[in-house]
Amino acid sequence: MGGTFQLFRIATILRDMGDELSKILKEYANNELVNKSLSAGLDNLSMTLTAIEEYRNCAVQRLEAKVIGELCQYENICKHAREELKHTMNVREKEMARKKVLDKARERQPFNRQQVTYAESELLKATAEMSRTAKGLSEQTEFFERRKLQQLKGLLANFVMIEMTFHAKAVELLTVAYQQIGDINDNADLENFKRKLLSPEKPVNAGISARSYSLASLLHPQQSPVKDDEDATSLNRMRSPEKSITGKSRSSSIAAMMNHSPSYSKDGDTSETEDTEETQSSSEETESR
């Protein structure tokens, strides 16, 4: 019985340690930013181990209910059996005492029939009580033994069934966990790590960022700010003639349209002349710009 309780405590400790292992793997997977395959594999493995510990928790609860609980009842059963045995021994001692009294009465006063008869009647009562008590004790002992054998058989069967169910599920899930570990692509993770190490745009951490930035600066030297300003100025100069040419072409086309248009009334000619002057002034402003 003590070994059973020790096994139950070990099972609970294994359950707690398995939960702790799953938690550690989950945190490591969440903090892994470079090795994507490793992160996914550890995440799946942590979920599988969590499922295994859930089955272990169910097994522990079933052991507690169907094995440990039944064994705990034997404390009261054994206590009651000890009390019955103690009562039987008291009755037996009482019978022996009555027999001694009868023997003394026969030795000391063999002719005192009243005292001898009284001692004999007390001895008969004690003997009858002893017979009843012994019979009851025999029945109690037989019942206790039968119950012990039946319950022990049932407890062992429940224990084996619980362990067999748990280990069958555990083997199934451990097979899945083994496949998940095999799915981790270490070569791809290594190549990804190398790319991250050489890439300054997406640094992994402070140390890798500094090293990768230094290496990139050595491989691709940056241009000076003065050269950048000169390039921008030359680009603006190249773009400005295009704008002036465009403004001139627009103004000339508008003037041609106005010259070829038919003549109307004097007021209309005056308005057209004003429009033409405004257009020419706007074109001159465009050219000056």
Automatic annotation (TrEMBL):
Gene Ontology biological process terms in this record: cilium assembly
Region of interest: Disordered: 219-289
Biased composition (Polar residues): 246-264
Gene Ontology CC: ciliary basal body; ciliary transition zone
Top-level lineage group: Eukaryota
Entry-linked InterPro entries: AH/BAR_dom_sf, CBAR/FAM92
Name of the protein this chain belongs to: BAR domain-containing protein
Taxonomic source organism: Leptidea sinapis
